[in-house]
Design goal:
Elements lengths: L1 H5 L2 H15 L15 H16 L4 H13 L3 H11 L1
Length: 86
């Protein structure tokens, strides 16, 4: 009866949550490149992006970036690059 007066339900819930946080194992964190590209494709994409950023009014450079992004499967980025360059 003494313990019941000292601990409330909220205290027990907080104790359980803290115990779970302390005793659960940490999750494994892995990092991967966003697109599976070889070094040549990555370099060509980087140069195309640099050309498009250096001269945003050049429609061919922006289209080249969008095309290269589409080829590697980054369709959302391809649409965004084409939209920003338009």
């Amino acid at each position: 009866m003494q313990i019941h007066r000292l601990l409330s339900l909220t205290d027990l819930v907080v104790l359980v949550v803290v115990a779970v946080i302390l005793f659960l194992p940490g999750r494994e964190v892995t990092a991967e490149p966003p697109a599976k590209m070889n070094a040549d494709t990555r370099l060509a994409l980087a140069f195309a992006e640099a050309r498009a950023r250096a001269n945003p009014a050049d429609g061919k450079a922006v289209a080249d970036v969008a095309r290269r992004l589409g080829e590697v499967g980054q369709l959302d980025w391809a649409v965004q690059a084409a939209y920003v360059g338009a």
